[in-house]
Amino acid sequence: MVSKERMMAADPKESRAPGIVLPVLISLGAVMLAGVFAGYNDATVEAGRTPLAPWVGPLVAAAFGIGGLTLYFRRHAGWFRALSPRQHRYWSALGLSAIIGGIIGGWMVLDQETGRDAADLFGSGALSPSFALGASLLWAGGLAVGMILYHRAIDDHEERAWLWAGLAGWYAFIFPAPVWWVLHRAALAPPVDVMPLFLVSLLVNGAVYLWLKFR
């Protein structure tokens, strides 16, 4: 059987890959632009004036992000066309994940009432049933498709990093979860909240993955 490592060795020699810094800066710029509009609306409401429609900020931020990334990918179109089928699957998986995350994030902002701050947005703010159902379907379906593409594309080295990262993330969940639950039952801790546990698991997963992949 031909191993993944040998399959990778058969890939055509790549030219220098485009840098990742510029796409990250474009994405951060879009997020900051949405935050500027949100801050302007909050200040407008406090001043007793009529704010902009809640969809204006996300729409402008999305246009900025999509436009900037489109120009970036057009500039490096030759490099992307030269990718092997395996590499196409790899970048398709990452791109699909980024698009779904952007859709859910933008939709979540639109779903909130004007005047809510970031704590309400990501913490205790109520969500509409339509957003909850749509975001859940996008997350579950997109994650399933993205993982299939991703695992069909990665090599042995990245697969090893991913498997160990998944195990480390699992350990980061099973250690604190029962402890928190028991302490809450004894009235020594607040009720168990799944999101902090999820975030801790995600951070540990990401740290271990990056360390094993790039060391």
Automatic annotation (TrEMBL):
Membrane spanning residue stretches: 20-40, 52-73, 93-110, 130-150, 162-182, 194-212
Keywords in alphabetical order: Membrane, Transmembrane, Transmembrane helix
Name of the featured protein: Uncharacterized protein
Source organism of the structure: Sphingopyxis flava
